[in-house]
Amino acid sequence: MNPFPTLPTLVARRVRQSLCACALAASLSAAATLSPLEAAGPSRADARQAAAGPDSAQSRHRGEPALDLPNLLRDGQGKEPASGDTDKASPGAAGIPATALAAYRKAEGVLRGSQPSCGLPWELVAGIGRVESVHASGYGLRVDGSTVRPIRGPRLDGVEFALIRDTDGGRWDGDAVFDRAVGPMQFIPSTWGSWGADGNGDGVRDPNNMFDAALGTARYLCAGERDLRRSADLDRAILSYNNSRAYVNAVRKWMDTYRGVGVVETPDGAPAVPHRPDPADRSSGVRPGPGPLPGQGQVRPMPQRPSGKPAPEPVEKPKPVEKPQPVVDHRTVTRLEPLGSRELDAEVGHAVARRPQVRALDAHGHPVPGARVTFRGNGVRLAGEANTVTVTADRGGIATTPALQPADHPGRFTLTATAPGGRGPAVDFMVTVRPAPTVWSCGTRTMRATRTRSVRPCRCP
Hints:
Elements: H1 7-32, H2 36-40, H3 47-50, E1 95-97, H4 98-114, H5 122-133, H6 189-195, H7 210-221, H8 231-241, H9 245-260, E2 264-266, E3 335-339, E4 343-347, E5 357-361, E6 372-378, E7 380-382, E8 388-392, E9 398-400, E10 404-406, E11 411-418, E12 427-434, E13 438-442, E14 445-449
Parallel strand pairs: 1-2, 4-12
Antiparallel strand pairs: 3-5, 5-9, 6-8, 6-11, 7-10, 11-12, 13-14
Helix pairs in contact: 4-5, 4-7, 5-9
């Protein structure tokens, strides 16, 4: 056998080595260009769906945005400007809640440091926030960026809107079958899995938090090395968020409004009618009655012929004092959500320190104010000697028990919360009742035994 390889063998070996080296270099180069988040890929979602482009899940028909355009010829009260002031646009249309404004500006600052070539303006993030949820107005925006009530789009089951099956196990949208857009910036859960961010530094990436959602939106818009100072890249970025030309026009109009007029910072808790991206949520709302049609002006009364005798002056009757009406929402409660731990404890003879709470929610995960919730105790007394009590949920849909008095002996007991008519699963709280410590006196000293076993009597000196 010839110990030296032939010329064809040497050529084939060299070709194989070259191909392997090229493949290795290509794989190393691709890995080097990915950030750790991109290399890991979107959680529980197809990478194409989470990519920031026109085919992404985020860009699909996922709800009804607020596509109304700013009317800068009217002030905040809807009045026309004085004659000669039409060139000075009123800031009434440019109001943004203080916390939302802080979140948009903070997102711009973060991207200025991490991706300066993107040129992201905070007014663009604000434009998307305005179109998606009107800056979370009417949802109880708090100073930490959270909201009292969740903001959720319609169920994406393919009937009226896009078909997007569940990608988060219901973690963010409360639906384990189909996805919903969530939060003030209306993120699809799969998109949030790749682009979510911690904007308020609490260690949690929460799409329902304004600071987190604003920063996630900024990162998403800057994907693909876009330069948002270029009009074409700006359009592509907005289309990747919602693939609709009407959506692009609305976002750009609001962005230009915030740039040109100047922004009015409004209080977070200012009264506002929330924009509901889910049309089903609007069926229970009260719509305003018909008014004069545009262009008709005011209706003038017909002139009356004067009579011989002057008409007597009308006597004003005292107006009856209106009694405040309780806040009642007639939507159906489909489930109860426990607030805080379901494990409670107390000593024999002492009331439970914490009063259990549940939140009543409808089929879309929205709180139901005024809902009636029944608490039933087993070995636990509520409101005196009763073991059953029905309470009314507050404006946030939260029902709170009265003070709980546990049984007069140690053990574990249950407190069950049920929705009206027994709809939805019940919520159980466990109450652990510990024996009271044994107290005895030894001369001038008072001692307590904290163990459950018997304690030997002390020996006084």
